[in-house]
Amino acid sequence: MPIRQLPDDLINRIAAGEVVERPASVVKELVENAIDATATRIVITTAGGGKSLIRIEDDGHGMDARDLVLSVERHATSKLGDAELDDIRTLGFRGEALASIGSVAELTISTRTKNAETGLRLNVLGGKKHGPLPQAMNRGTIIEVKNLFAHIPARLKFLKTDRGETAAITDVVKRLAMANPEVHFVLSGSDRSTTNWPAVTGDGALAGRLAQVIGDDFAQNAVRLATTRHGVVVAGLAGLPTYTRANSLSQFYFVNGRSVRDKVLMGAVRAAYADFTFRDRFPVIALYLAVDPGEVDVNVHPAKAELRFRDAGGVRSAVIRAIGEALTHAGFKASSSVAEDVIGAFSAPGHDAAASAPRSGPLSPTPFAATPSAYASRDYPIAAERGFAGFTEPSGRVEDSEPAGLVDYPLGTARAQMFDNFIIAQNGDGLLLVDQHAAHERLVYERFKTQLASGPVPSQAQLIPVVIELPEEDCVRLEDAAADFERFGLYIERFGARAIAVRETPALLGQTDIEGLIRDLADGLAEWETTTALSDRMEAIIGRMACHGSVRSGRRLRVDEMNALLRDMEATPIRANVFTAARPMSNSRSAT
Fold first, then answer.
1. Model pLDDT for residues 78-119, shown as the tens digit of each residue
2. CA-atom Rg of the chain in angstroms
3. Which of 231, 276, 444, 520 is the most exposed place for a label (fewest CB within 10 A)?
């Protein structure tokens, strides 16, 4: 086939494929234009997940007749000079958004400037302009997009359900609102309940907006970031290590007011929290960077969702330093401090006892639960001499409950509990350190799988249903998955626009953290993006449930409970995996 020049309508539709990926992409482009137009109030209205209607109304400076006509032409923009590609200071600058949208939907633009006697309206259908015509309206701009992709069925069939697209629009608006606390956002429509985020100004503007969007609990469980390093200003809120989620969807990154996805920033946050959080838990963070526009390239992605730093190492260093300093000032110690206490506890008897004194801060070892004389037995000779900080005498007498054949048990017999989290066990070869939560989590996981193999998991009813407030999009996902969760023994139902009522929970979990379980499952659904594949996610679901139904770190156990846990670990079908929870403390046979 010979080379030919493509017609304009096909060129626009191809370009639209880069800019207009889904309804949420349209909302993002139009709201960014409103923000660039110095709007102080933006109202977003949708229907049918944005496929039927998207309406953006702002009180910005508006457009005159000349600008209105040019606004729907390709590569026409008021935000970029002839030689300013290395100095981008606006959200939109490509000049493709309105032209692309007009080629794949019915587009209507109504606008009025401050000094104009009346407004103007321009219609674009199939890339063809009609108008402008007079329009009565207040100052600002109103853009309506109807029947998105109606004439491109190949694109339309690849969109998600109305609920899925509605959730995607909510996420886009949420990020734009977080980046612009001085702007009043209203999100409404026939496919959602109304969300209203009033403008917040003053010193606490950022924290106030984050409390509106993410929730008051985040603002109350976060530390403030405010540092400058390598020419990078780092601001925002970083969640405490004890305030984590099951995935990284609650991590938000902004560079020069633009919401981005960037591997450098994600890696920096992961490194900064490495010594503070448990494995498979993700901190909640809203990270704001201000960088010289000449030091960052925002023109590497058609939707401007990714960028490239000139000095990626300097940015990474600035982020890690800012988070590390903020968490340290909040009183949190790195996990290495706990390791030092453990090592010190096993030092020779002549070691200075002051070195084993409890450290300050939330990660401090548990104080002595009994006087040193309580350990005056053959089982704790060193403990009796030194009085280990962090060691707890198990309830009951060890010698009375000790099995006769110690060497017959691979995991031995419980000797003590350390930091209300680790079981010190002794077998014929040495000592083992067992993480009680990780061990019991594996046991609950295996029992879940066994019960599921024979039918639905038995449930226990709550005397009073537990009502949990969640973002509307999470409530929608949980409601869609409610029938699938019933086979796991979890019975939930919608309770208003932004809450879920839990009526029954798996009996296997006992007195579990119901709110934490529901939030983790909501995180999982958001990550998987579909409820039709829940059966394929069975292991992930019961893994989350098992975690919340396990013996928690910080719980003091009796000696018979510890020994029973060790025996159950040995009897677990997949022993190799179970023994990863036991860590040998000598050069004896490894339990891993």
1. 666 555 556 666 776 565 778 888 888 899 999 999 889 899
2. 30
3. 231
